[in-house]
Amino acid sequence: MSAETPSRRRERIDRGIKVRTAGLYALMSWRELSYLILPRLVLIVGLLGLPMMMPGMYWKRVISIVCIYALLAIVFDFLAHFVGLVSLGGAFFVGTGGYLSAILNIKLGLPPLLCVPGATLLGGALCTLLLLPCLPLRGVYFAIVTLMYPLLLARVIEALNILGGTDGIMGIDSFPSAWIEQYLVIVLVLVFLFGLRRLVNTDLGLVLRAVKDNDQAVRASAMNVTFYKALGVFIGASIGCLAGACLVHIYMWAGISTFALDFSVLPIAATVIGGSGTLVGPLLGCLILVPVSELLRDFGTLRIVFYSLILLGFTVFRSEGLMVFGQRKYHQFERWKSI
Amino acid sequence: MDILIYGTINSVTLALYALGFALVYGVSRLPNFAHGAIYVLSGFIAWSVINTLGLNHLLAIVITMVVTALIGSAIYLIFLIRVRGMAISEIIASYAIALAILEGLRWKGFKGMTYTLPVFIEGSTSIAGVSVDYQRLLVVGVGAALVAFLWVFTHHTRIGLALRGMAQDERAALMLGIDSDVMAVVAMGLGSMLAALAALMLLPLGNIVVESGYNVLILAIAVCIVGGIGSWAGAVMAAFLIGFAQILTVVYLGAHYQMVVALLAIILTLILKPSGLFGQQKELEERV
Q1: Partner of A63 at 20 to 30 A CA spacing, among A6, A297, A327, B170?
Q2: How far is Cα B256 from Cα B90, in angstroms, rounded to an integer?
Q3: Three-state DSSP class for B287?
Q4: Where does residue A49 rank: exposed (0-12), middle (13-18), buried (19+ CB within 10 A)?
């Protein structure tokens, strides 16, 4: 705290157009309409058009990877800021979904377009079941257990030599066409992004947010906190498993590396950079971080150091994130006021 | 007899891993995910002090412990103090620190057989027909001494009493003139020093590998959860419980299952008695 009192302060006021577009009045003019629609349209069209702008197969593949990480990052954001559970193990969801989809494909011979939804639901249920013991508790237990599962599962698969051991499961079918492979993940990201944004504003989302902010109030309303947490985890884990299943069918291989730390750390870093609690922010963070990490591929594990330093810096010093900053600039103007 | 002796050694090892974590969590409610990273880091500091500066072994131990304590306090002062009380940010920030340290060390090429610390005393003896090397006996001795020292420290010194006061009720401690920020820094420094001590005792038994950072963290957390987070007596008891369970699984089931024991212990504790064996103090706060 400085000794001298400042002579002026900054004041933030909502823009007129934001207030006008809050209700039905948004339909008044094209200007108001475009104020609302333009950002969403830029996102949708931009994401759908992105693969066409990419020069070669390699960068088209990078876009798919961006989308897979984006799904994980959206899950992290949803769980951390709307259900209040910090998941340090995105890799757990990816690994479970990936291996399940591989098993469905190889052992039962199902086509990929059936394997993916199957692995999503089965994986979501399995992850929820495995995480159930720590859901009735507050505090750090969920973070600890999600941190442990991917590390341990990778080691168990390695030690017992099950599910292909260190070689992994090979010969998994790819998606029927390159076009589906490219656009499936992009459409899924958009669907779940807007879906979750819708979900957190429904009654269910209200209860989930109440679980985060004041679980005693939820109990006092005769609702079972553990049930709602489990529901939130099921939604999150399903989307995470879906990402893992898509990844496995894109690479046509499922191995221990689906439990790698990258899948746990990068989504968290992307969320913190992009703006936590916005659900769009994580996607933005992935669009920035994943290409950078592809460029840094030569440095090996130094990439993880790079993410974790970014993560640390943003968490501690700039916890706001890009998207929150952007939204503020879009909706509000600032002026100096003397005091 | 094998099981008894090696079970005891393994249990003391686990207790050494866990005490630093338990101290930091108990005092400042900070789940220090960087604990394992600090453990590995102090191993490398000791290695460089011995091999590059060529100092005497005992001096190296003292230097390593002091340097690690300073690093721990610095981490707290620079980063973690800014996110104090924000549960999500605390977890993410300490996890990020852990990853930065561990993966940074891995990138620098600190892995493989070449990095080992010398043992203090060569040779081995036999107790009731089981051969045990002196280093392992020393581990048990140091572990017992450490527990005794910590008991005296927290019951009969001003700083120790202040730490205990903060662990029990932070606001009441503040009213009695205990500066909670200073105490949190002290706790983090002490916790790091305990991690360094554990590393110095245990690393001579094997190689210094980066992966052990994650193992140490997991085992420390397992011990703390089973014992009841924040309870020291509980942590020691839980270390013996998990330590013997691990040795028994190794003997009767195979070495692969050793890490699964820790996970099962956590899950069972969370299902049966979430506050841990001895954690009555915070029982109501943790449960929804």
Answers
A1: A327
A2: 33
A3: strand
A4: exposed
Query: What ipTM was estimated for this complex?
Result: 0.80
Annotate A97-119 with DSSP letters as a single string. HHHHHHHHHHHS---HHHHHHHH
> What whole-number distance in Å separates Cα of residue B6 and Cα of residue B90?
37
Integer CA distances (angstroms), A92 to A148, A162, B206, in order: 9, 17, 30
| In contact, B227 and B238? CB cutoff 8 Å | yes
Nearest to A70 by CA among A323, A296, A318: A323
Per this entry, what is the length of chain A?
339
Please, are residues A236 and A79 in contact by the beta-carbon 8 Å criterion?
yes
What are the CA-CA distances from residue A300 to residues A67, A247, A261, A275, B227 (Å)? 22, 20, 12, 27, 38
- In eight-state DSSP terms, residue B80 is G
User: Among A218-232, A243-257, B47-61, where is mean pLDDT lowest?
Assistant: B47-61
Q: A212, A284, A320, A247: which is closest to A90 by C-alpha?
A: A247
Closest residue in chain A to residue B88, using alpha carbons only: A86
Longest dimension (CA), chain B: 57
pTM (2 decimals)?
Answer: 0.87
Chain A: closest CA distance from residue B174 (Å): 21
Interface probe for B, chosen from A312, A317, A318 (most Cβ of B below 10 Å), is: A312
